[in-house]
Design a protein that fits this description.
This protein is α/β, with parallel strands linked by helices. The protein has helices spanning about 15-25, 65-85, 95-100, 100-105, 125-135, 195-205, 225-230, 245-250, 265-270, 275-280, 295-300, 310-325, 330-355, and strands at about 1-5, 30-35, 40-45, 50-55, 90, 110-115, 140-145, 160, 185-190, 210-215, 235-240, 255-260, 285-290, 305. The protein has 13 helices and 14 strands.
């Protein structure tokens, strides 16, 4: 059996890809992977079992300018499919799936697995119809959040599969209560959500108690570092890109996790971000935005706090102070481990479903 795995990023932006690769190797299945380098323009390369498509396509920015990049991306995938026979396809995210939806439906009906990670353009009825049609004709569709049922149909072939990674680095030690003065609030990952982060920075700027740390690549239209420099904010720090296996070391110098994305779009109201799992694995309380699926989950499981940035500095600082001062390490550890145990059960079920697909 030959399997083609189709992604639209490089591996360092897709930690969950490793789950599929481990299963493919365990099952001794031959596979190739399509990756997309969005920083360069040149001919597609093949390195061992990896095809790397090179077509400049910046994260963020005007969507119109991305049409040519996706056209080239589709063209290269069709060329790969023509040159080698594949029995099954695993495809990540909606835009790549829609780019080759005709091939998926006609040639690989019930022979593709669709991995759905993020809300994109589902507010448009025709786009939403296509996504649901792709789901219906997949063997299984793996989703990363039940919040997506706000706009997806509840098909029987939908399976919950979390964005969790680094579970082998699971900690049993909490740093929050060991900080007598400075509390470090960390954002680890692709740095975006400019408006929300500017608002958070504005509410905590130059605090004597709280420090904000940003670790990762900065989204092209997110200018928070310049904002901090221009406003002489002295308690916000930035560090560049990192490898996923460095997360454990990074989180050792962080006390709480910043996952404040606002609540003004389906994307942030329904998704479960990687930082939720970082909270459970690295044992760091998480700060999230009110009125989201994530906030409901965080409050229900008592693993952090939800704030409303629109209520201003007093609200934010009071919420943080109250949480820090009443923090119970033992209770927090128990709550993290209980939710983590449930997630591991979900992951075992998802793994069995993927094996069933093969």
């Amino acid at each position: 059996m030959n399997v083609l795995v189709i992604t639209s990023f490089l591996k360092n932006m897709m930690p969950y890809l490793g789950k599929y690769e481990r299963i493919l190797k365990e099952e001794n299945i031959s596979y190739d992977i399509v990756l997309w380098d969005r920083e360069k323009n040149k001919e597609t390369e093949k390195k061992e079992n990896e095809y790397i498509i090179y077509s400049k396509c910046k994260l963020g920015g005007n969507k119109i300018f991305k049409i040519y990049s996706y056209w080239k991306y589709r063209k290269e995938i069709l060329k790969i499919l023509k040159n080698k026979k594949y029995d099954k396809i695993i495809i990540f995210n909606t835009l790549p799936a829609i780019a080759i939806c005709d091939v998926l439906i006609k040639k690989y009906n019930k022979n593709y697995l669709f991995d759905y990670r993020d809300y994109t353009y589902e507010k448009y009825s025709c786009y939403r119809y296509l996504v649901n049609y792709i789901i219906k004709n997949s063997f299984y569709t793996m989703i990363s959040s039940k919040g997506f049922f706000l706009f997806l149909k509840k098909e029987r072939n939908i399976v919950l599969m979390h964005n969790i990674s680094n579970i082998e680095q699971c900690e049993e030690f909490v740093t929050l209560k060991n900080r007598s003065k400075k509390i470090k609030i960390g954002y680890v990952g692709l740095i975006r959500y400019e408006r929300e982060n500017k608002n958070l920075i504005k509410n905590i700027k130059n605090s004597s108690r709280y420090i904000l740390k940003y670790v990762g690549k900065i989204y092209s239209n997110c200018h928070i570092q310049k904002y901090c420099e221009n406003n002489m904010i002295n308690n916000v720090y930035f560090k560049g890109e990192y490898n996923n296996n460095e997360k454990n070391k990074i989180y050792k110098d962080i006390d709480m996790i910043n996952a404040v994305y606002g609540n003004d779009s389906y994307e942030v109201r329904t998704a479960l971000p990687n930082r939720l799992y970082d909270c459970l694995i690295f044992k760091k309380p998480i700060i999230v935005s009110e009125n989201t699926y994530l906030a409901n989950l965080v409050k229900k499981n008592k693993i952090g706090i939800a704030i409303d940035l629109n209520k201003g500095k007093t609200h934010v600082i009071e919420k943080l102070d109250k949480y820090v001062e009443s923090f119970n390490e033992k209770d927090f550890l128990n709550k993290c481990n209980m939710l983590l145990s449930k997630i591991v059960e979900d992951e075992d079920l998802a793994k069995n479903k993927i094996k069933e697909f093969f």
